[in-house]
Amino acid sequence: MSTSATRRVCVIGASGKLGRYMVRHALDRGWEVVGVCRERSVPKLADLADRMTIVPGPTNDPEVIRKAAAGCDAVLTVLVPWGVQRYSSGTAQAVLDHAEPGARLVFSCGWHISRDGGDRYPWKFRMMVRVITPLARLARVVDVNDQVEACRRVFASDRRWTVVRGSDLEEGDSQGLPVWSRHVGDPVLASNLTRRVDFALFMVEALDDESLVREAPAIVGRLTPSALSHSAAGTGTEVSAHETEQPGEAS
Ligand SMILES: NC(=O)c1ccc[n+]([C@@H]2O[C@H](COP(=O)([O-])OP(=O)(O)OC[C@H]3O[C@@H](n4cnc5c(N)ncnc54)[C@H](OP(=O)(O)O)[C@@H]3O)[C@@H](O)[C@H]2O)c1
């Protein structure tokens, strides 16, 4: 395994908004980057193409993933809720099956994924998931349940995984590393907003954070009101960049 200075990382879903941010964070660190995206999306990486290797193909194709992840210390995967072809679960399975032994695996999803059932969702959030899930599936655009299945497979794996659960997202300049908690419903997460660039930053930084191995952190922007008031109440003037909840304190 190489050191973080010489790391080779694979970004799966590299052409999307989150994927592109992850590619940039990795390149900024001087790492070698292999990106996977659908053939038709390769042009979306044109500005970065001379600084990375691009493997075109469906991310749920085991052969595509095997080729792209070969020799990589880490795999950063965007779990896509789009489509109804079991794209997300197929992608997760291909990564679990074909990443190098011992590789660090980090996956993205939303707050709606619950690892242990200990999350307490705001009623508006529950309502939205309840209404959108069947409608979107009916319209054949989004299959939220397939992302649930993808994460179930990751949680059951003995790989060195982290599943990062994103709040609502917005564009904008970085505010720094988001704060996190094990459970949605923790007051620190109440603002429910993270800059996409910082979601990507959290995923990339997670590669070097052993405390996040086999964790499913729910994140929120570090400069959001809820993160700041947690900081003021609990840890003095500075926002705690990482854990807001110690093992055993989970609600
Ligand atoms: N959007 C939010 O508010 C939000 C909130 C919380 C968590 N998240 C999580 O954040 C991650 C990124 O989400 P995002 O909304 O920011 O989108 P994004 O980064 O733009 O990623 C969308 C991805 O979906 C792929 N895609 C689009 N249509 C597809 C299709 N029909 N079949 C297969 N792949 C398709 C895109 O690939 P191409 O480039 O090839 O099109 C791209 O890799 C996801 O894991 C999501 O669950 C999002």
Automatic annotation (TrEMBL):
Residue segments, region Disordered: 228-251
Listed Polar residues bias regions: 228-238
Molecular functions (GO terms): oxidoreductase activity, acting on the CH-NH group of donors, NAD or NADP as acceptor
Location of the NAD(P)-binding domain: 13-210
Tree of life domain: Bacteria
Pfam families for this protein: NAD_binding_10 (PF13460)
Protein name (record): NAD(P)-binding domain-containing protein
Species assigned in the record: Nocardiopsis metallicus
